[in-house]
Amino acid sequence: MGTIQVKTPIPGPKSKALAERRAAAVPRGLSHATPIYVAKAEDAWLEDVDGNRYLDFAGGIGCLNVGHRQEPVLSAVEEQLARFLHTCVQVTPYEGYIRLAERMNQVTPGKFSKKTLLVNSGAEAIENAVKIARAHTRRGGIIAFEDAFHGRTLMTLALTSKTHPYKAGFAPFPSDVHRIPYAYCYRCSYSLQYPECNLYCARHLEDTFKRVVASEDVAAVIAEPVLGEGGFVVPPPDYFRVLTDICRKHGVLFIADEVQSGFGRTGRLFASEHYGLEPDILVSAKSLGGGLPLAAITGRADIMDAPGPGGLGGTFAGNPLSCAAALAVLDLFERQDLLERANQIGRHFQKRAKEWQKRWPIIGEVRGLGGMQAIELVKSPESREPAADETKEVSRYCYEHGLVTITAGSYSNVIRVLVPLVITGAQMDEALDVLEAALEAVGERQNAVAQVT
Length: 453
Ligand SMILES: Cc1ncc(COP(=O)(O)O)c(C=O)c1O
Fold this sequence. Notes:
The protein is an alpha/beta fold. It has helices at residues 13-25, 59-62, 71-81, 95-107, 122-137, 154-159, 163-167, 200-211, 239-249, 301-304, 320-335, 338-359, 388-400, 425-452, and strands at 38-42, 45-48, 53-56, 114-119, 141-145, 177-180, 218-223, 253-257, 281-284, 295-300, 363-369, 372-377, 403-404, 406-408, 414-417.
């Protein structure tokens, strides 16, 4: 018998009752990808309050790369629970914070001397990366990318690209943020093709410094090594080298946002490693805490030391429980073959998804790096018109049949895989069977329409 067990129509009666209470008590601005209310979770599965069991391709939006409730993470947290919960590191510091900073300095790319600051969330970490870059360079400008997602606070919304639902209605945003196209080859902003394009989009940064903002006014370029919310877009291998060469030439820092791509998701601890990229500042969060809230800003020591004492911090930043969990997560990556598992998941997904693509042209592109995989759905391969409604339909079919997925992309037409890396081979096939059936439903309908017209 498989892992998935669907015993009631989804949502079940208890989930429905909770949804009613939620509508009365919680603002509608907080939306949910599924109507499923969770009762418990282990490894790569979730069980809802009605006793239905799902495989989890969302992993808390990429926060559970090591799996739900892994024993070493639970033991580390329990051990910390027995000692103290909170003191505030700015009042009476503790060793867990220091140990984690030391480990982060070791495991992030780049052999240079580094320092690490811990905070609570991805957005808070990006805010701090910007503060630190500005303090170091004494410049204000930040260059961000189309299709980027860096968070929901006001500064990170200024850096984030997608308008609806993230930015619309929340302006004004902090100024001095400039946006350039990312290497989204499937939808190239310049209608060029790699490799004939000679990475025009990266080289164009030089032009931006002439026509948009002077390089001497720019503190940093910030980029995700693989776009997360933007749709799991993987730039060509030499893209970041061209980009960072230009940054270096102009004394502009490079910040890698590895909040979603980090902690083993792409088959390396950090996606930057795939490109030989050594960011001046690297931001990680999500799976760092193994399910607890935590984020890290790791960078060259001289850059990190730019803000003066008291310039950085936060009451709960680097919470002792989260630090203990993160140290256990790092141990798991050292001991277990999770990185190889991410690569296996990626290879297996690509094999099956490329077969699906042959049958259903609604699948415009299959792409990804390691265990960070996605399919982009289009109305037709020729027009590449985004198929957002069909994507929603696929996601809905999946959760109604026991697979939790989430969508992504500036056009909301991407299904992404952020499954805990501890999923077994049999569970992975079980999950992909559900996804295949969902795609068959929309794909066959589209094929039928194409035949008639
Ligand atoms: C690349 C990236 N940066 C930043 C963030 C913001 O992180 P948080 O939601 O923890 O604030 C996210 C969240 O999805 C992300 O994917």
